Amino acid sequence: MGKSRASKKRAKEEEANAAEVAMAATVQRLQEIFKDHSEQGIRAALLECNMKQHFAIDRLLSQQVASNEQGASTQTPESSSTTTTSSVLVPNQSDLPNVPVRSGEAVPVSLMLLPNSSLLPDVISLCWRSDFPSLSMANRDLRAIVRDGRITTCRKQLGLVEHWFFVFEKEGLWFAFDPYNRAWHNVPVMPEAPYWLRNPGLPAREIMCVGSELLTCAESPVDTMHKFQAFNGTWSLVAGMTNQPAYGHAWAVHEDKIFAAGGCDADRKSLPSAHMYNSETGLWTPIRPMHHARMFCKGAFMDGKFYVVGGKLSYYDKLQTTTAEVYDPNSNAWSLIENFFTEDMVIGSFDITVVNKEMYHASPSGELGWIHKYSPRSGDWLFMGCFPWDSLPTLDAYLMAAYRPVRDQPFEHLVLMLWRMEKSDLKRYVDVYVAAPTVNLNWVLLTSESRDFGAYSQRLAGVMGY
User: Does Repeat appear among the keywords (predicted)?
Assistant: First the structure.
């Protein structure tokens, strides 16, 4: 009897050890095949994790794909993109012991019976973000991993970034575009519509994206913000800047931090104040103010410094300033760069972004719209190419950003999100173009989506990468 129990115990220990070794090998293989950017390979590797364990991930993911295909088959002809019915919100499933998959089948309560499940976040972090809802439906352990942010830590360690493009539609409705799978996803409804929609005469407030968070200033209470956390799919009202601008401020992201400066208050007085947001603590802290107040300015982070460019020094100025202010976090000091822009670059609207540690400037001025790249050595702006010509004639607004076309490789591409009104059907579209940052930009259209956009929806859009 004793030998029988001891042998069974040893057998269980050996089986558990073999399972841990198999899981470690699977993680290593996932990292290797990930370079091929093959979703099929990732799913096949997940299936290999079975190894005498109770895995049903492949069935769940197959069910998700079938659901997406069904949604695509019923899409309206007005949209040229596949819009999924899934949500970036992790489903808040009831705590049922089993989740039905097929007739007569159910997902086991435990996906894997390992004594140490510490490797699970490593596996899940390599899945597509669009697969998180299906994975979280499997059991409580996976749902907890998806919702508590451990995936963010794993992806940072792997140098993995997956960019999604978030766009405001109207009345608190948002949606997101997944450029890797060319799919649109619904976002949970914002509890309160942005205040400028209730007061159309006011400019839009900026939105800021860092990691898995989206932030936008709230109207009330003063100095608060609406924050969307992509992992758990929830909106919350959180503390904002101590001297929070009403609108028109510059901002930029560096690692886990947002730097913001300028803007104006509710009385349209321009502000010199500046703040830094730490996504790990969720807190804003004041930093040294700029030399001069400015509003309607743009921000970028390059070479370890925060650049605030363009904008007006006061609300009633007709021309924008060509002077840039640069903040060095190490010395907590601002410096001035005179004539950072040429006068032509700030005549009308413009946008800036940093791609592969180089700053780009976009402006629809001229016949074709211009993209320039900044040269820190000479202080000159080099012409890189034009806007996609077919969208410019009907262009309502635009946003320029950067994204990684391959999630584990740091090389970035330029993104142009263009809003246009199509007179033939009186509908507003958003087009998403990407291009490698080379001379004579070769734009590729990723998607063109028509939704019931509000007149100012393009003022709330951003790229979230985590």
Answer: yes
